[in-house]
Amino acid sequence: MGCRSHVPGWHKKTLQLQKEGKLQIVGLIQEQHPDRCQLFMQWKQLDWPVLVDSLNLLGLSAVPINMLVDEHGILRSKRASAKDLEAFIDTNYEAPSVNTKPPVKLSLAESKKRAVRGSRNAEAWLQYGDLLFLNSHEKPERLTTAITAYNIVNQIKDTPEAWFRKGVAFRRRFESPSRQKDDFQNAVRCWGKALSLRPNQYIWRRRIQQYGPRLQKPYAFYDWIREARKDIEKRGEKPHVLRVEPRGAELAHPSKKFDTKEPEQKSPDPEGKIKLDSKLLIQTEITVAPHKIEPGKSVRVHLNFKPNAKQKAHWNNEAGLMELWVEPTSELKVSRKLTQFTGPQKAISDENRKLEFEVQLSNDARAIRRWELKAYILYYVCEDVNGICQYLRQNITIPLN
Amino acid sequence: MKRSTPIALAAFSFLLSFLPSTLLAQSLLKMGKPFPNLTFQDLNGNPVESLSKYRGKKILLLNFASW
């Protein structure tokens, strides 16, 4: 909540200085998704330039933080108050005696050359990975090479920054046309590893919490978006369209107790009579955030179901609902056992279907044991456009640590 | 014990010398020194230089997240 009032507050406070040309505001955001900030800027009617630091290159471990940089590019305050700003504006800073002209930057090709030449130079590989990521907007396939570069950094030396940045690259690739299986889970795993090496890194912790369970959330991350869109439309403007719509965990409000719903519901196929999807017409991807469950703690399970494109499979929406049944053992509690999913209005479709739920491990469970959750999904699916349509079952095992 | 301290310090400095500067991210921000000349992304995801284009202006840098 801090940032939402902090930023417009400082904008308002300095409006006169901005108008008089005495001050330039620049935003620097610590988020995975730059365009969500674009919507925020539109909502709050902020028009100054914004830099996006999804990789956390600056190494900030908390937000919001104000910094002051003078007319010669010299950092004058790392945590500026209103009083500091006043003094900053009134001071005429002398040009530094040494040349502060920024050094020449390496191109992507030069950076690659440097990394390959000094094959054990972790810094060179890290910079190459960063450059690939920063230049991946039009070429998402570069994210794959960035992930490889970060892997090499960690082979040379286990580096928390490389783990975090690799997680950011995995998640970015997950939302790109270059997406590969388990990208989301790999992102969560890398962030978890980075955080285990540097537990006080608040920005990194937030990245996991964004997709994690309600018990461990500090706030609902993107619940402001609905209100923002309403306000923008009221002004007669069209809200900025997001590339990836936040959902599930990203909108869920924190909770102090583990909520379970409809505990009395019954398994729709207790004896396993529904035919198994032996051809895997529906492909399942599982992500658990954080990636390890601990006694007394909870995790959020993200399931993604997609008709197998190679087999031209598609959902049959006319026949009935898709259902997920989760069967926890006595040590595990789930937020809901039965989840029903309604498809779109059209008769057939091939969209990704996403379901989320939460799991809690009891306090007295043993941390060292391997924990997993059994579930199954029932769905109506067709093979090819004019192929056979069937009602099938897929058994799922969800690893929790 | 008296001898081991300088040896340990030397070993520590030796180990530190292998740590690349950008890996020690916090050290990038030094008071009274130029703001790091890094490349970030703009809101459309394109690469953009940090603050070099604002030379001659006093800057209030607001570090934040929309959440």
In short:
The complex is a heterodimer of chains A (401) and B (67). Chain A is an alpha+beta fold.
Largest interface: A-B, 81 and 46 residues
> Strand share of the residues of chain B?
15-25%
Number of helices of chain A: 11
Largest sheet of chain A: 6 strands, antiparallel
CATH class descriptor name of the largest domain in chain A:
Mainly Beta
Q: Give average pLDDT of chain B, whole number.
A: 73
- Alpha carbon gyration radius of chain A: 25 Å
Strand-residue proportion of chain A? 15-25%
CATH topology of the largest domain in chain A: Immunoglobulin-like
Overall spatial form of chain B: globular
- Provide the domain count of chain A: 3
Shape of chain A: globular
User: Which regions of chain B are unreliable across 5 or more consecutive residues at pLDDT < 50?
Assistant: 9-26
Write the layout of secondary structure elements.
The complex is a heterodimer of chains A (401) and B (67).
Chain A: H1 2-13, H2 15-19, E1 24-29, H3 34-43, E2 50-52, E3 65-69, E4 75-77, H4 82-90, H5 108-117, H6 122-134, H7 142-156, H8 160-174, H9 183-197, H10 202-209, H11 224-234, E5 282-289, E6 298-307, E7 314-316, E8 322-327, E9 332-334, E10 338-341, E11 348-349, E12 353-361, E13 372-382, E14 389-399
Helix pairs in contact in A: 3-11, 5-6, 6-7, 7-8, 8-9, 9-10
Chain B: H1 4-16, E1 39-41, E2 47-49, E3 59-64
Antiparallel strand pairs in B: 1-2
Structural commentary:
The complex is a heterodimer of chains A (401) and B (67). Chain A starts with a helix and ends with a strand. Helix content of chain A is 31%, strand content 21%. Chain A has three domains: 2-90, no CATH class; 115-211, Serine Threonine Protein Phosphatase 5, Tetratricopeptide repeat (Alpha Horseshoe); 259-399, Immunoglobulin-like, CATH 2.60.40. In chain A, strands 7, 8, 10, 11, 13 and 14 form a six-stranded antiparallel sheet that branches. Chain A has a four-stranded antiparallel sheet with strand order 5-6-12-9. In chain A, strands 1-2 form a two-stranded parallel ribbon. By secondary structure, chain A is of the alpha+beta class. Chain B is an alpha+beta fold. Chain B has one helix at 4-16, and strands at residues 39-41, 47-49, 59-64. Mean pLDDT of chain B is 73; it is low at 9-26. The chains are: A alpha+beta (401), B alpha+beta (67). Chains A and B meet through helix 1, strand 1, helix 3, strand 2 and strand 3 of A and strand 1 and strand 3 of B. Strand 3 of chain A pairs antiparallel with strand 3 of chain B.
